[in-house]
Design brief:
Growth Hormone, Chain: A; disordered N terminus
Length: about 500
C-alpha cells in the first residue's frame, strides 16, 4: 500500500486517491460530454443549421453501440499491456494523452476526422480506464475495510466529471456547434493530463511497475505487441479511407457475439489452464456470475446515450420558464443523483457490515437488476402517455434515471471492489479488463436494443422495453437463488 508523507489522507483514504480522483473526473467529463452528443450528431440532418451526419436510427444506434463496446473491449489489451510491459501508471498517462488527441481530432469538422477521433478515444480509454481502477485497488491492503468505500468515493469522481461533460459539452454542441462540444471535451482531458503529471508522485509505487519477468520474455512480448499494433493500424487506415465498407447493424451484431465468445474463452482459460488455486477458482465462479449480471445491466443503462436520448429530444418537453434546455442536460441528473446518493449507499453498506448484515455480492447485484427493470416499467408508462399526447413532462425521464442510479450504486462500485479483491493477483490488470468487457457487451447490446426501440418511433418502443423488463426481473430472481446456494455451500465448507 502506497501513501505519501506529504499528506495523511484524501477524505479518509490514501492520498494517492486524489490524483486518481481528478484524473478520472476529467476523463469522464470528456467521455460523457462527447457521448451525449454522439447519437444526436449522427442523426441530425445534413441540411440542418447545426448539420450532422444524417444517419438513420438503426445505423446511428449501431455505431453508438459499437463505439461503446470497443471503448470497454480495449480495456482488456490495455490491462495486458500494463501488466506485462508498461506498468499501470504509465498506461494511464499514455491513455490520457491519446484520449485528449482523440477529442481534439473530433473537433475538426470532417467526416474522416470524426471516425478517426473516435478511434483515438477508444485506444486511449483502453489504456486508462481499467488500469486507473487497478491502481485504486493497489492503494489498499487486502484486509483494509475502506476498500469498498474507497471505490464508492472514486465512483463519485466519475459522476462529477460526467456532470461537467453533459453541462458544458452538451450546451456548446447543441447551441453553438457539434464540434465545439467535441473540442470542449478535449480541453477537459488536457486538464486531466496536466494534473496527473503534476501529482503522479502521490501514487508512490502503486502500479508503478509491470509484473516481474525475464528480460528475454519481456522483449519477446514487446515484439509481439508491436506487430499486433502495426496490423491494427493498417486495418484502421483501410477502413478510414473507405476501401472496405461496413454495414453498422450486422457489424454490431457480430461484434456482440465475438465479445461474448471472447469473455467465455477467457473465463475457461483462467479456470482450466491458469494454474489457479482452489480458492481462486471459487472466486472466479463468483466473478463470472457478477460479469453476466453486469453485462445485462449496462445494456439498459447505456440507453441513456441512445434511445432515451432520442426520446428526450423528440417526445419530451424540455422548456423551463421560456428556456429550452439542451437534450444532453437531461442526462446529467444521473451523475447528480450518484453524487447525492453514493455517500448514503457507502455508509449503509458499512453500517450493515459492522453488524454482520451486509448482503452478499449476488444479492446486491440482484437489487441493481430489479431497479433497472423498474426503470423500464416507468418508460413503458411514459411511452403510453406520449402515444396519446406528446411531448410529455420530463419527470418521467427523471424518475427513470433515479431508479437506474440506485441500481448503478448497488452494482457498479461493488463490482469494481469485488474484481479488485477476488481476482487472481497475477492477472489483476486483465481481470479489471474483463470487468469492463461486461460493459463492452452491454454497450453493443444497448446500441442494438436502442435501434430496435427507435426504428419506428413510439410504435416500436413497447415491445423492446417490455422484453427488457422481463429479462431484468428474471435475472434478478436467478441472482437471489444463486446467492442462496453460494451461502449454503460456504456454510457447508466451514
Amino acid at each position: 500500500m502506497a501513501e505519501s508523507s506529504e499528506a495523511q489522507s484524501f477524505f479518509g483514504h490514501p492520498i494517492g486517491m486524489r490524483t486518481l480522483f481528478l484524473t478520472e473526473m476529467w476523463e469522464r467529463m470528456s467521455y460523457y460530454g462527447m457521448r451525449a452528443l454522439l447519437v444526436l450528431f449522427m442523426t441530425s440532418a445534413i441540411t440542418a443549421e447545426n448539420a450532422g451526419l444524417g444517419l438513420s436510427q438503426l445505423d446511428a444506434q449501431a455505431i453508438y453501440g459499437v463505439y461503446v463496446g470497443f471503448v470497454y473491449f480495449m480495456v482488456v489489451p490495455g490491462g495486458w499491456l500494463a501488466d506485462n510491459l508498461l506498468g499501470h501508471q504509465r498506461a494511464v498517462l499514455y491513455g490520457a494523452c491519446i484520449i485528449a488527441l482523440g477529442h481534439l481530432t473530433l473537433a475538426i469538422p470532417l467526416t474522416q476526422t470524426f471516425f478517426l477521433g473516435l478511434i483515438f478515444v477508444v485506444l486511449g480509454t483502453g489504456l486508462l480506464k481499467g488500469n486507473i481502477s487497478t491502481i485504486v485497488g493497489q492503494l489498499y491492503s487486502d484486509t483494509d475495510p475502506r476498500r469498498e468505500a474507497g471505490f464508492t468515493v472514486f465512483y463519485m469522481s466519475i459522476n462529477i466529471g460526467s456532470t461537467l461533460g453533459f453541462a458544458i459539452c452538451g450546451y456548446l454542441g447543441e447551441n453553438v456547434g457539434w464540434h465545439w462540444g467535441f473540442g470542449a471535451a478535449g480541453v477537459g482531458m488536457l486538464l486531466g493530463v496536466y494534473q496527473y503529471i503534476r501529482w503522479r508522485h502521490l501514487l508512490g509505487d502503486a502500479g508503478a511497475q509491470p509484473v516481474a519477468m525475464s528480460a528475454a520474455r519481456r522483449s519477446r512480448l514487446t515484439q509481439i505487441s508491436s506487430i499486433v499494433g502495426v496490423a491494427f493500424v493498417l486495418v484502421l487506415l483501410v477502413l478510414l479511407f473507405g476501401l472496405i465498407e461496413i454495414d453498422p447493424r450486422p457489424f454490431a451484431e457480430n461484434f456482440a457475439i465475438m465479445l461474448t465468445i471472447f469473455a467465455a474463452a477467457y473465463f475457461v482459460y483462467l479456470f482450466a489452464f491458469a494454474k489457479l488455486t482452489s480458492e481462486e477458482r471459487r472466486n472466479l465462479v463468483l466473478l463470472l456470475l457478477l460479469f453476466v449480471a453486469a453485462a445485462a445491466f449496462w445494456s439498459g443503462f447505456d440507453q441513456s446515450g441512445g434511445s432515451l436520448n432520442i426520446f428526450a429530444r423528440d417526445y419530451t418537453d424540455l422548456n423551463f420558464f421560456g428556456f429550452t434546455a439542451p437534450v444532453a442536460w437531461v442526462q446529467f441528473v444521473n451523475p447528480i443523483f450518484v453524487v447525492t446518493f453514493a455517500p448514503m449507499f457507502a455508509a449503509f453498506w458499512m453500517y450493515l457490515g459492522k453488524r454482520n448484515l451486509d448482503p452478499s455480492l449476488p444479492l446486491k447485484f440482484a437489487l441493481g437488476t430489479f431497479l433497472m427493470g423498474l426503470s423500464f416499467v416507468v418508460m413503458l408508462a411514459a411511452v403510453a402517455i406520449a402515444m396519446e399526447a406528446a411531448p410529455i413532462g420530463v419527470r418521467w425521464l427523471l424518475l427513470t434515471y433515479l431508479l437506474q442510479t440506485w441500481g448503478e450504486l448497488a452494482l457498479s462500485p461493488i463490482g469494481l471492489a469485488a474484481f479488485s479483491r477476488y481476482s487472481p493477483k497475477r492477472y489483476a490488470g486483465q481481470m479489471f479488463g474483463l470487468w469492463f468487457l461486461a460493459s463492452a457487451i452491454g454497450g453493443v447490446l444497448a446500441g442494438l436494443l436502442g435501434g430496435d426501440a427507435m426504428n419506428d418511433g413510439l410504435d416500436s418502443m413497447p415491445a423492446v422495453f417490455g422484453s427488457m423488463v422481463q429479462y431484468y426481473f428474471a435475472l434478478g430472481i436467478l441472482l437471489v437463488i444463486a446467492a442462496y446456494f453460494l451461502r449454503a455451500k460456504a456454510r457447508s465448507s466451514d
